[in-house]
Amino acid sequence: MHQHSILDGLNDRQRQAVTIPGGPVLVIAGPGSGKTKCLTHRIAYLIAGGCDPGSILAMTFTNKAAEEMRGRVAALLANTSRLAPHTPPFIGTFHSFAAFVLRREAARIGYRREFTIYDEGDRMALLKEVMKELGVSSQRIAPPVAAAVISNLKNDLVDWEEYEGREAADPFGRTIAKIYETYQKRLRFANAFDFDDLIFHVVRLLRDEEALRQRWQDRYRHIHVDEYQDTNTSQYELVRLLAGNARNLFVIGDDSQAIYGWRRADYRNILNFEADWPEATVVLLEENYRSTPEILAAANHLIAKNKDQKPKRLFTRNRPGEQPGVRAHEDERAEAGFIAEEIAALRRGGLAWSECAVLYRTNAQSRALEEAMLEHDIPYAIVGGIRFFERREVKDLIAYLRYLQNPDDLLALKRIVNVPARGIGPKTFLAYLAANAAGLAPKDRKTIERFEKTMALLRDGMTEKTLAEFLRFLLDTIGYREYLAEISRDGEARVENVEELVSLARRYDAMALGEAVTKLLEEMALASDQDELEAEDDTVKLMTLHSAKGLEFAAVFIAGLEEGLLPHAKSIAGGRAELEEERRLCYVGMTRAKERLWLTWAITRTLFGERQVNMPSRFLRELPEELLTASSALSEDVDVYLVDEA
Predict the structure, then answer these.
(1) Which of 30, 67, 123, 332 is disulfide-compatible with 368, CB 3.0–4.6 A?
(2) Does the active-site annotation cover 257?
(3) Domains with residue ranges and CATH for the chain
(4) What is the pTM of this model?
(5) Of these residues, 72, 290, 592, 596, which one is catalytic?
(6) Is 393 labeled as catalytic in the residue annotation?
(7) Known catalytic residue at 186
């Protein structure tokens, strides 16, 4: 395939971005403007032009985005021999890339390469153990508060020693520093990292070891970053260190879709790109291929109210459609009922359930919406509910894999030692950990011996098996299916989840078992809400506005456009920067819609046990009347959205 054929189907701005020969490039890509297309065509264009695929790195925020990009690049290069037999480009999440580096550099920081990555549940379990060990009660410092502070420190590249020195005079800070120190020591003892450690340690290595930095810079000479506006301090530093030599850095994103400030994302990274890289080329993608002109007009008008942004105005050549609808309701039940009725009508009109989404600011809003869906027999799925990998039965089997691969992982051992039930209580377990079997009763000693024999049998069974075959062997050896049937009324559904894990493991049939276990454990630990969205799942999607980022639907309903909810009360108290993030969040929600958009609010709403009387959101009041179709389900005559252009 010739380079020029890769440019087919691109508009002028996309083509400009794809063909820039090198150096720093910033692409500001508005919603629906072909961001992924631009990025994947850029990578394919480089490879078709003779660039070594193995020198290309592309970092994303979700496995789903990375998988889609890999598929698109492969399809664009399908008729060439440019990918094989070369090392393929690395296209993955920031954290999967960091794990990839650490597997090769672990010894430099005192780890073995078979380390475990702790997910959120593991992290909290270890943190609670540490706080108990230190005598810090949850009344004094709630474990989620300690977890958030430590996570923020790691994302800001601050280790416990630096934090301890900084907070020496503050009792709270000193306590957090001690928790942080002990937590890190326990992680190291378990040969484990948490999610935030991955990038933290890679940045430290790249920053402190010049030869190592040079080696990785030489390996990846073309660096690409998706959703650059969502990078935090540690991700920003990772990119800066990797690209600092060759300076071939291609970043794409949209400051108007920066909605993760609460996760330490810093949208100033995208606003300051030209200051960081003075020779940068900037390309604006403003043509929207997703939404109707009416939806775009309202979205453009809303986001124009923000001060801190790069100027842009989306346009579309799509056919005109209906104006966004605004509707007021007496309460959240009436609002949810209206949304369900509208979705049912859209379905009767031929729209698939999966083309409809209901978006809201907080998870607490989903209850009334779920009830309405059930009342109207509408199939629905909550995005960001209990993930597959968080289900008890899946975590049990994953813990077996973790312990077999990394015998220092005591959290995994603690989970499996009595699953299925073996009669190993806390006292017996502690004696086992202390290698003090002699102090146990004969019955307990026999129980421990049986457990050790089972582990030895499983380790012996790891030879010459694929991961899927080994999982079946594990299930049979420990009698796990029978255990599920005994302990759970929904045992059949749980067994189905176990079988789904075995099916998932078949993806790794071509790999050696150790490598396959590592890959599966990484995928599990680094999963995100959107990774489990099934394209063929014909259900209405209910999700928070944050979870909707990057998705699109024919019909979108944004519920709860009320002061104190959207924008959230905390942002109203927090000042302009936080309010602007809430406005961006509303903008992201509006620009998910292709054909129909409804903005709804309720004059009264019960949230967190309290009945509240609401004013319509300022975001409704910022939209001119002529851009919307307003209606009311209120028993008395109240303005649906009080137009206030002042």
Answers:
(1) 332
(2) yes
(3) 3-102+200-285 (3.40.50.300), 116-190 (1.10.10), 293-386+534-632 (3.40.50.300), 388-526 (1.10.486.10)
(4) 0.88
(5) 592
(6) no
(7) no
